[in-house]
Amino acid sequence: MADKGKKGKAAAAPAPAAEPPPPPPAATPEDKKGQDDKNKKKANLVQPKNEVGTRKGCRRYKWELKNSNIDFWLKGHALVKIMSLGCLIAAMIMFTGTSVHPLLTLIITMELSVFCFFFITYTLAINRYVSFILWPISDLLNDLFAFIFLMGAVFLGVKNRQTMPLNYLIAMVLIGTAGIFALADIGLQTQHFKGKRIKMDVLAPPPKQEQKDQKPMEAGKPPEKAAEKEEKPKGKGKGGKK
């Protein structure tokens, strides 16, 4: 009976507490690199549609090419430039076989080259990588000068001819139409400036290094005026009666 009682007491005794689990091993630099690579891959997979984000290399160029062509074609700039190019090329064809003032051919070829330059720049998204040029302003100025030059060419061509054959007259009409298309492009370019504010102090030069060094030195100096007032003895005292 005594043995049974001892066995019951031993069975009723609580089990020893389990040892706490060992701490997890510290992350090695290789594991950190693997986690960073995974985070970068996740960031590259999810990119904003309206911004470049973290795209680089060919992915960025594809996005810039697509976005530039959407702006160029859907907003009407490409159509206006194509119409101007077509009118000027047709005018050059109409001038064949007739005597033309050399300034007319010079103006037409100059405007053709400028229109082709902007067309290639916007189509290949070169303007997105040459950010130091304000492209909307430069294109607006080009359209303004193109309108002035083409209208001047029409005036010069009509003034220097007493008799105008049919092909010469058609060429003058085409040049004037190209100038009107350039004027229409000015109205399209003004849409880029709506809702935008001018940043102040954009052209201000950066502060010199000497001025930057002087400012922290002045900030670290203790107030000297109050200390000087306390140290100065009172020079004027009340004189007593002698």
Report what the structure shows.
Residues 29-39, 209-234 have a biased composition (Basic and acidic residues). It is a multi-pass membrane protein. Residues 17-27 have a biased composition (Pro residues). The chain has 242 residues and is mainly α. The protein has a domain at 58-192. 64% of the residues lie in helices and 0% in strands. It has nine helices and no strands. It starts with a helix and ends in an 11-residue tail after the last helix. The chain is rod-shaped and about 110 Å long. The longest helix is centred in the middle third of the chain and has 25 residues, at 135-159.
Task: Spell out the key features of this protein.
single chain, 242 residues, mainly alpha, 9 helices, disordered C terminus
